[in-house]
Design goal:
Chain A is an alpha+beta fold. In chain A, 23% of the residues lie in helices and 44% in strands. Chain B is an alpha+beta fold and 408 residues long. Classes of the chains: A alpha+beta (420), B alpha+beta (408). At the A-B interface, strand 4, strand 7 and strand 21 of A face strand 6 of B.
Chain lengths: 420, 408
Amino acid sequence: MRAFALIGALLIPPAQEQAAKFRELVDRLDSEDIAVADDAAGELTRLGTAALPSLRAELGKRQGELRRRLEDIVRRIERAEKLAKALGAPPLVSLRAKDRPVREILADLSRQSGLRVEGEGLPEDARASLEADRAPLWTAVDDLCRSHGGLMYVFTPKRLLVRAGPYRNLPRKSERGFFFFLDVITWTKNAGAAADSYMDVQAALVRPPRSAIHDATLIIEEFADDQGTNLLADPGGSFALDEPTRDDPEALAVQLYMYPPTPPSEQAGAIAKLKGRVSMRAALEFRALLTLRNPLAQQASRQLSGKSRLEIKSWKRTGAELRVAVSASCPDPKDAPGRGLARVVLRDSRGAALAGRSESSPYTGATFVLEEEDDGMATLDDALVFTLAEGTEVASLELLQASDVETISIPFEFRDIPLR
Amino acid sequence: MNLLTLAAAGLLAVQNPDELVRTVDGKDPAASFEAIARLAALPEARRAEIEAASAKLEPFYREALLAEIKLKGELGDLFGKESRVTWKSGPKYATAHAAELATRTGLVLAPSNEPENATPFDVEFDGTFAMAALARICHEGKLRAERQAGSAQVALQPRGWEVQPFAYRNFAFFLQNAYVEKRVDFASRPAWTLRVSLSAVWDPSLPVAGWKPEARLVEATTDSGAKLEAAAAELATSFRQDEVDPMQGTVGHSSMAVALRLPAEAPAKVARLRLVATALLARSFREFALTPARPKAEDEELEATLRPEAEAGSFVVVLRPKKGTPAALAALPPDFRPAYKNSKNTQCSAGVAVKAGEVEYRVYTWSSSPEGLAPGGQIPELVSVTLRLPTSVAERPVRVELRDVPAK
């Protein structure tokens, strides 16, 4: 124990030293030399959440330009904190398994991750080995399948499945807890029609559970075959490369796809380069536009504010099942950063969002997204069905709009994908 | 036994199997299969004679003949009666000839337009199978026929290929699609695959509940005589929806496909494509009438519940088996017939999801009427859904032979 304490003392700078460093950075932040001040601002920001109490204390003592700079740093750290929360963290798993039944391994991974990790059509006697030490779940499952060779994973919006089949070494990128992979590329030609050829790229993005990422866009910046054909050349001029995937905000995985406007050359032997990024929006903050409090006190209720409207047309409770016919709309301008992120949430008396299902779509979850309309409004007209636990009190129905949105990107570059 | 039946029986009795077998020479698939149908229709007493004569046939035709004789015995009434037509007409457009055929056979045609380059033509049928007549009318009129899902109607559509349709006895098959595809799946070496899909039309009296979606390849030969192999099954993708896309259809659909692996130097055409398509014949049907006001119906085997959806033209039907498993129930091809207020000529396709204790069908409806499902832009009002589900099915394999299918 004494030895550890000694090592700790050697490794961790004493508090005085940290305090001195902090004071020095604040002094440099006050410098009239902008480069010096910017450099100090960068260092202070990198200190992160741990520095917030000292920064806030400093704010109270300072005035003028230095105070403004300190406020800016506090804002940036707070925002980074919110972003980290919005992005969530991938489930980490640890396991040492040698020649164990695959079903047992998957059950273990499911228990550790809290996600549905299941076998699908696996032979009863399928066995595999895995060594994972605080590895993201997707990396562990990829390792499991690769080392076995006869297993492959399949993501669905709610589950991670492992099934029998050749391992597919998918081009992939893991970053910030996200897992992006190219799934399949298909090049199709109508037989008997010489000029009719097209390609499509299917990819998928796996997100950390509970991440507040609401849509994803596959943006391809370079796409060329080994004959020098630019697959992004758009002779028609009407090709949209960046249509976002509007999806279930609570889905574990979403599909992304794109159709390059130009097919590869007939002689192409490979895709020489496929470069781009997955662009996503993280909602850092939502504000309530309208709230119906104690919404089950009457059979129907409504609230209006400006162009926003939130209405319960009717509700019915049958045993534990509550069916609420909801109508909502709010402005959702085309160029607004929060476009497409308005939602309705039913909360209990503790403020927790209640999970339910939509009657008009296969969606189940706790946030019901309003659909974007062409007229710059977003609307929802649906019956939402909730199964309430005993003693649950429905306290409010809220119409929320994202008020702070950050765009993040996962860049990728894949080369030499064989076409033959 | 009336006079006509006696005459037909007498005609069959005098037909010489050897003479008929000589017609099965493979030069013209239509003539070869006409002879096979005649051979299979000969009385049981001539079976030994037929089998002896069949030894001279090439394997594909021999197997077809012997399979037909066996099926006739096994399927009984489900084998279906011969439906033949005899008539002659001066020049008319294909849709007019098809309308005449429909009057004579009970075939139900969806409203169809002539293709732009259509011209009138003569027809002459003399004891021709009704489905062979349909195939001939469609080919001459630059059309292809397709049985519509969620309806008993047969639609005639402009065809994109010159490939002759194929008809045998109660069935006609039309080339629906032919395309080559290279799939980069990051496991196997990408190679061109030819995917050919066919649409089937059948005599209206035959209780076809659906088709197996994949046809079995018997033989594919290029112009140079090289054989093409069936492509390996596609590897599963690593993303899929939990729900099944309604547009993918269920086993009840009337089309089937085959995939062929192409060599590096792809041939221009598959000179001869021989397949076995499998119809699922319903031994009997159970029927449920569901409406939004009375959304539940049941019998001793299962319970059906209708759930209209907010999305225009879609609804959900949930089946809960009281006996047996949901998976076994999902293997039976359902036939949904929705009726919408002020809409006609509706068609639909259903995606199926097997869940704990139930099978859920998500059905999407549209209309081939010019005004669509919702005339005047009104939200279509679902009036009723009739669900016909086979109690059990018998498989009815049908040999199919196509010539000169484009391969690149």
